[in-house]
Write a structure and sequence with these properties.
With 120 residues, the chain is mainly alpha-helical. The chain is 82% helix and 0% strand. The protein has one domain. It is globular, with a radius of gyration of 16 Å. This is DUF5518 domain-containing protein.
Length: 120
């Protein structure tokens, strides 16, 4: 379970950095759409990877999401200064929901691969 949590955490960090750099390279700016896109593309894979082939998929996705929000908040404090509890709580709620959606996708796809049809 710990390995899956760390894999999900690493996936979220790498995907978020890659797409953040890609958006910055094309000078798309910081707007609501780009921020929403980055949040979506960061937390969905985090939950998906953390939940794959795991006995406790939703717990793993939740822990990975919490750690990713914590890391994001720490880096935001260091580079942008200040701690805003409202932003932290909002990031925690949105990140957890998106991560659990990713875990549900992984859980559903894992069940459909192992489930046999009724005629078999």
């Amino acid at each position: 379970m710990i390995v899956r949590i760390l894999q999900g955490l690493g996936t979220g960090i790498v995907v978020g950095l890659f797409f953040g750099l890609l958006l910055g390279f094309f000078n798309l700016g910081v707007g609501f759409i780009t921020i929403g896109f980055l949040i979506l593309i960061t937390y969905l894979p985090t939950g998906y990877v953390a939940a794959r082939k795991n006995e406790h998929p939703f717990l793993s996705a939740g822990i990975a999401s919490f750690l990713l929000v914590l890391i994001n908040q720490i880096f935001s404090m260091v580079f942008y200064g200040g701690f805003h509890p409202g932003v932290f709580v909002l990031g925690l709620v949105v990140g957890l929901i998106l991560s659990l959606v990713g875990a549900a996708i992984a859980y559903a796809s894992g069940r459909s691969n192992t489930a046999k049809a009724s005629w078999e």
